[in-house]
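Journal club prep, notes for RB
We'll compare a predicted complex against what the paper describes. Inputs for the adenosine-5'-diphosphate case:
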Amino acid sequence: MDLTPRQEQILSIVKADGPITGENIADRLSLTRATLRPDLAILTMAGFLDARPRVGYFFTGKTGTELVSDKIKKLKVREYYSVPVVVNDQVSVYDAICSMFLEDVGTLFVVDKQSLLIGVLSRKDLLRASMGQQELHEIPVHIIMTRLPKIKYCEKDDLLIDASLKLIENQIDALPVIAKRESGLEVVGRLTKTNVTKAFVELVKSEEV
Ligand code: ADP
């Protein structure tokens, strides 16, 4: 975030003499409190300054990088996940390939009759199954899928950074977003590397006011 010369001046006053009231900062710059209000709001919202009633503004001591990292650590899966695409465990590999194309996704989640998670199918799982001389209409996906308990998943309230670490550490493209039920794991969403990339871009865009 680029600060204006006046915002830089405010920062150095608060750094040197904070906590200091808005009134006092205004006096030091020979400006009115009203003129300074937008600058103080920006500096506070961006996290450079903090304000306490009757005490005034003080410097948070955080660098730009620390502020960005603070923001990233607050992002939740619930703000970024996509709609899941699921198939039943009895469908054929051929039909799963069709679903992957039609729904334009790279990962399918396999569910049982109660819509509970039992497997994951990636592009390469389906490619691998197609390489032999096998009858793709005859092989059900449960033969080739990655199954529980091997499946890595996340929940809506998990931090996006924790879910992203799971994607990286396990070298996978997507996590099912699940809700825990007594009978198992209900699939409620899909968190992919694309969702994380979008979060990254949005974070930068939100700074460009
Ligand atoms: P691709 O294989 O198309 O590159 P992935 O890297 O996502 O896609 O998948 C690699 C392997 O990991 C596949 O065998 C897939 O079934 C499995 N896999 C994918 N997602 C998960 C997950 N969330 N939990 C466990 N295994 C997964």
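Talking point for the session: DSSP finds eight helices and eight strands in the chain.
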